[in-house]
Write the structure tokens for this entry.
Amino acid sequence: MKLVRFGGGHVGILQDGLIYDATIALGFDPEAWPPVGMVQLIKNFNAFRSKLESAMKSPGIPLGETRLEAPILWPNKLIAYPVNYVEHGQERNVALRADVNGFFLKANSSLSGPQDPIILPDLPDREIHHECELAIIIGKTSRHLGVREALSCVFGYTCLIDVTVRGKEDRVMRKSYDTFCPIGPALATADEVGDPRNLEMKLWVNEELRQHANTRDIILDVPNMISMASSVTTLYPGDIIASGTPAGVGLIKPGDQVTIEIERVGRMTVLVEQGTGGDNLAIRKAPARS
Ligand code: MN
């Protein structure tokens, strides 16, 4: 099953180009704040399954007639792993590795959707890069999961672009600008995706293929990432884990179209726009770094 958020906080199922609105059947208020409807759906998925199926009996909305939004906007946390493919470590010439350094966090408020632009801060001396990543969506409250049982807590997967200002400042700050974490277009449930250790991933900027990898080459695989994260922190339904990028990261500029595609998970194209502001004392102290 593929789940989407759309049309101002509505929740639905995407099938064959049609969206079936389940908001009313699930008893959700699309305008509720904070916007946690999808998180509640993930938490109670089995109990809600018959309501979802009944929503599919009403007419679907053609995909082009509504606006897709970030499938999850208000998780408990957005965990991210650094360098997780050997070749990316080599191209960045960094010793950081997911299995050595563990994970970091990205601001939840950096999340944006498949039809939201990536808005670049006004930092003319800085490179801003795309990173093509598989996002793991947690389905069950979990702590201290062993590697062998880790996949049991997965709800599903989605595409994630980890947008990054290059520099020496703390990674959390450089990766937490608003719109620096497009996810979508849908949440693909785990049964739909199957083995996460054999997924083709691609990212294009305009027509140029920049990143192409397969999750079989990942250093720290999905079960190991979940196990490591859960050794530190309780994982909650709706939590997102960005699984680290393969080689081929590069510049994005205003006017670019960034397309990410992950086998059996989805494909989306996000526009890049120039924004204003985003400079600060720490960044001004090292303007020449990239
Ligand atoms: Mn990344």
